[in-house]
């Protein structure tokens, strides 16, 4: 997993698995997230870096994906798992 924070810029490099818009000979997309230095608690780039640091011990050396499951064995989260997590969180927000 490649995440770099430099000054006011951060960059997240996708794993090498092809995505829907991948083409031969073209690099994978890179996500650029601005760093919000006025309030680190609201900065997506800082929180993303913290998440990666905290979950590093859960990842196997060959697991280069951003999201890992919270139940053992900690593997990459599938599309279905991410969708279920998203629906759960949105349901919690809807009930507030």
List keywords for this structure.
single chain; 3-stranded antiparallel β-sheet; 16% strand; 2 helices; alpha+beta; 96 residues
What do these coordinates show?
The chain is of the alpha+beta class and 96 residues long. It has one domain (2-94). It contains two helices and three strands. It has a three-stranded antiparallel β-sheet, with helices on one face. The radius of gyration is 15 Å and the shape is globular. The termini are far apart. Residues 1-11 have a biased composition (Basic and acidic residues). Residues 1-24 are annotated as: Disordered.
Can you lay out the helices and strands and say which pair or pack?
Elements lengths: L1 E5 L2 E5 L16 E5 L9 H12 L23 H16 L2
Antiparallel strand pairs: 1-2, 2-3
Total of DSSP H or I helical runs spanning 4+ residues: 2
Unreliable stretches: none
- Would you list the SSEs in sequence order as H and E? EEEHH
Radius of gyration: 15 Å
Main sheet makeup? 3 strands, antiparallel
Number of domains: 1
Strand content: 15-25%
Helicity level: 25-40%
| Sheet with most strands: strand arrangement | 1-2-3
Q: What global shape is seen?
A: globular
Number of strands: 3
State the distance separating the first and last CA atoms: 35 Å
- Which structural class do the helices and strands define? alpha+beta
Mean pLDDT: 79
């Amino acid at each position: 997993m490649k995440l770099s924070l430099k000054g006011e810029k951060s960059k997240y490099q996708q794993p090498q698995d092809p995505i829907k818009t991948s083409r031969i000979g073209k690099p994978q997309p890179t996500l650029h997230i601005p760093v919000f230095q006025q309030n680190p608690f609201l900065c997506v780039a800082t929180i993303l870096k913290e998440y990666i640091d905290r979950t590093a011990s859960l990842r196997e050396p060959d697991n280069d994906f951003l999201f890992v499951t919270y139940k053992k064995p900690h593997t990459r989260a599938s599309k279905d798992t991410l969708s279920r997590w998203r629906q759960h969180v949105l349901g919690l927000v809807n009930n507030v």
